[in-house]
Amino acid sequence: MEKINIVTEFIFQGLFQNPQVEAACFVVFSFFYTVIFLGNFLIMLTIFMGNLLKTPMYFFLNSLSFVDICFSSVTTLKMIVDLLAKKKTISFVGCMLQAFGVHFFGGTEIFILIVMAYDHYVAICKPLHYMTIMDWERCSKILLGTWVSGFLHSIIQVALIVHLAFCGPNEIDHYFCDVRPVLKLACTDTYVIGAVVTANSGTVTLGSFVFLLISYSVILVSLRKQSAEGRRKALSTCSAHIAVVIIYFGPCVFTYMRPNVTFSEDKMVAVFYTIITPMLNPMIYTLRNAEVKNAMRKLWSGRFSRTLMANSWK
Q1: Are the C-beta atoms of residues 80 and 60 closer than 8 Å to each other?
Q2: Which residues of 276-291 are buried (b: 16+ CB within 10 A; e: fewer)?
Q3: What's the pLDDT score for residue 304?
Q4: Model pTM above 0.85
Q5: Which domains does the chain have, with CATH numbers?
């Protein structure tokens, strides 16, 4: 049977239907996105410019900050614009591209968090072999693997829905295009596809979450053998990572581990992993990491001093 698709655009219901509330949220979420962009960009710039941060841990942290900017931009920018729009529309092609971006950058972030956990494990449990195991060539290949894995995860999700028939209605109860809300609008039987989507996303989210919990449990147990100073430093680094994992994976597991069912609360839960986590990451990794704070202080105090000296010669 030939595919019938008369839907050329989708309409978002958005987070709220009250114009006054949406106007207030426009200010709040614009501020949040500014913090996300500037905070993560500052971390990237500090790692790039700081000579003391040329280690695998900061190599992966730099990538995490970049992914956070991209992930939040895919969803938040459109949502901010829609907060002031009377009709929140997106084209069919734009919706598919946004769904791809959500799962591509979201999946890549998950795999980077796993890699960072492995890096912490090697650094704490096998310190004498750290530079051998985590050499730069291997780190580059691992990082490439996270992007390829994110791409494969996303392309599978989008390929399952892009060829479906959509003949109306076209209103999505969300503020961005995700696979499940879009799947709900298809005018064909989507039970099997929904099961595959749940299996794919559920395996990635829950499997990764369990792996990370086990990894950090092993790390925390191994800290008993460390010196007091080494234990303090390791706990500071690991606690920041554990906080990110819980904040990010909690909402993801709630959203993607269920059967093919959507709730109106899903869009509020999605705020945590699309906006709150990317905003908190820079704060968590800088406020809990003395090396990053010192590198930022030295970098920006040095730039400020050079600027003052340059101005004094004018």
Answers
A1: no
A2: bbbbbbbebbbebbeb
A3: 45
A4: yes
A5: 9-294 (1.20.1070.10)
